[in-house]
Amino acid sequence: MKKVTSTILAIVFGCVLVLSGCGSNNSKVSEGVNKMLDTTNQLSNAIDNGDQEKVKEVGPKLEDQWKTFEDDVKKDNKDLYNKIENYLDPTIAGSESSELDKDALKTLNDQLTSALKELADKTK
Questions:
Q1: Which domains does the chain have, with CATH numbers?
Q2: Angle between the 102-122 and 2-48 helix axes, to the nearest 10 degrees?
Q3: What pTM value is reported for the model?
Q4: 8 A C-beta contact, residue 112 and residue 80
Q5: Are the C-beta atoms of 118 and 79 separated by less than 8 Å?
Q6: Are 26 and 121 in contact (CB under 8 A)?
């Protein structure tokens, strides 16, 4: 009887560990997405205001934020990973450009924001 109880407890404990590990990946992704959405919002405001200095400050932060959880997204949501990557790199490049192309950068940032919101919905 003790052996059966011990075995059941070991199985339950193992399941709890596995499930808690899954939750932490989603939590990490969710937290990262929220940070990036905050940054794309800041970038949008800077673009709307024509504040090129702020655009150059905020835009590159997206890459650092993305690096913290992109591997988890790539593993679990390959299609959204590719979608985000397609908009992320040009958005960052546009934010670092010597001349601000407000319309193009606004469009790219909006598309990136949309892809991030899709990912946020998937990780809820």
A1: 26-122 (1.20.120)
A2: 160
A3: 0.79
A4: no
A5: no
A6: no
